[in-house]
Amino acid sequence: MKTWQYLLGGLGVILVALQFVPNELPVVETENPGDLIGTGIVSDEVGRMLKQSCYDCHSNTTNYPWYSHVAPFSWLVAKDVREAREELNFSTWTDYDMMEKLEKLDDISIEVSEGEMPMGIYTAIHSSAKLNEAQIKQLVEWAETTMDLVVEEEEEELEEEDSVE
Ligand code: HEC
Q1: What is the pLDDT of residues 66-125, one digit of tens each?
Q2: 162 Cβ contact partners less than 8 Å away, ≥ 6 residues apart
């Protein structure tokens, strides 16, 4: 055998061995009663954009592609999805209090307008998740008007509580 054949064989053995390193992809949950899209504060169009560009990482409904089950990619995918859900999980939107919602919406508008999100490594593979200028503008406007809505909702709830007493 030639040297390169030994090297290739060695690489193959390493890749196979990597598959036995334990790695847990964050679980997928299909029933999410607290999901943002179910709350009615999202237009169909914005909902579709969020689903297409953000939900694989920022929701419990991650659609794992085949390579996400193959080490070492699986480690990267697991880490990104875990961190992304911790920062912002659209599937548990209704669990956030007013301040948290405002903070998330503000962050969304910053990250999207600066082109930081969706992550470049993701859009390089999922080209349909890329946002064009018009979509970026629409998402940012949505995040900003929704911040006003969130405050109004809170005020209405406080008024209702007052009138009950
Ligand atoms: C490939 C996975 C992935 C996709 C797709 C993705 N994100 Fe993220 N996002 C992350 C990760 C990982 C973090 C945490 C690390 C960081 O901040 O870079 C994060 C962080 C964030 C944060 C918090 C940033 C901060 O530092 O406060 C916001 C807001 C956010 N993402 C919004 C979005 C929006 C909106 C979309 C869709 C337009 C999106 N992301 C798409 C992986 C992703």
Answers
A1: 999 999 999 999 999 999 999 999 999 999 999 999 999 999 999 999 999 999 999 999
A2: none
Report, in angstroms and rounded to the nearest whole number, the Rg of the chain calculated over CA atoms.
Answer: 21
Interval between CA 1 and ligand 1 midpoint (Å): 48
Q: Which of 77, 45, 81 shows the shortest CA–CA distance to 60?
A: 81
Q: What does the block give as tokens for 69?
A: 């089950």
135 vs 162: CA distance, rounded Å: 40
Nearest CA to ligand 1 atom 35: 108
Which residues does ligand 1 sit against, CB inside 6 Å? 53-54, 56-58, 80, 83-84, 87-88, 107-108, 111-112, 117-119, 122
